Amino acid sequence: MRETHARYAGLTDGAVADYIPKLAEADPDWFGISLASATGRSFSVGDAQQEFSIQSISKAFVYALVCESLGHDLMRERIGVNNTGLPFNSVMAIELNGGHTMNPMVNAGALATTGLVPGDSWEEKWDYIHRGLSAFAGRDLELDEEVFASEMETNLRNMGIARLLQSYGHISIDPMRVTELYTRQCSLRVTTEDLARMGATLADGGTNPVTGAEVVSPAVSRDVLAVMATTGMYEASGDWLFEVGMPGKSGVAGGIVTIAPGKGSLATFSPPLDAAGNSVRGIRATRHLSHMLGLNLF
Ligand code: DON
Questions:
Q1: Which residues of the chain have pLDDT under 50?
Q2: What keyword terms does UniProt attach to this protein (predicted)?
Q3: According to the model, what pLDDT value does residue 218 have?
Q4: Is residue 185 part of a domain?
């Protein structure tokens, strides 16, 4: 891992996201890698203790929690599992699919998924998300209030997507509050050590290998990994699967979590992104580690 970190630390490709103003303050040199096994062991190198907002990586874990509550068939029908072939914040993907979302890993499907979170009040819904994501990580995750406020001031596009979904009958509660809840889940702070543990929980069939908590069932873990494989890296999911050979999920703050089912998880953090919104160093480092450790599933 040390060798992989040194190999890619000097890469200067990619650009730090700035459409959420607070994210633009990230240091482009931050680079951390963590590995967590499905037996509870972990290793890290670089900026593995640097906290950053989980962003779209939350989509995979909130999807898992909602699948646990609502089940395989309903989630497949309501949210979909196919790649859009379009950017993560595409509006056109909704229109081209008859007003339906196509998968839970892009913003439309993630907003619709968050709209299905159980709870009688917004507080209960947030508690469900917060407690669930914290159980995946094995510690109480904190909200980055500044990132949350920064995105809430600028996320007109997500509000538009949520309204559009409402117009098609795919969000049945207040779409502005759903957008706020989704933005909150994206603003939880994690480190690569947290992400690796969250991934290791999915690798371990939904049981956190450190705390022993059964967060979701093995069947739900399998469903989440399948949809991460097809869509976790957006329109670049095919390139990712071809090179890395494992399900992964990226976030616009620069995190990527990758799961080796039954074995464990790799997490990387490096803010500069490629055109699809995936961390450049993260992709290279994960690909290298996948080869070195023989993790490609195929
Ligand atoms: O909704 C958004 O635009 C962000 N909160 C999350 C997007 C994201 O992480 C895309 N990832 N690479």
A1: none
A2: Acetylation, Hydrolase
A3: 98
A4: yes
101 falls within a domain = yes
CA torsion through residues 209, 213, 215, 221, sign: positive
Structural domain containing residue 82 = 2-293
Mutate to test the pocket of ligand 1, among 19, 53, 56 (most ligand atoms within 8 A of CB): 56
pLDDT number for residue 192: 98
Residue 298 lies in a domain: no
Q: What is the CATH number of the domain that holds 173?
A: 3.40.710.10
DSSP assignment string, 39-96: TS-EEEEESTT--EE-TTHHHHHHHHHHHHHH-HHHHHHHH--S--SS-TT-SHHHHH
Please state the domain count of the chain: 1
Residue 131: inside a domain, yes or no? yes
Q: Is the ipTM of this complex over 0.85?
A: yes
Return the pLDDT at 142. 98
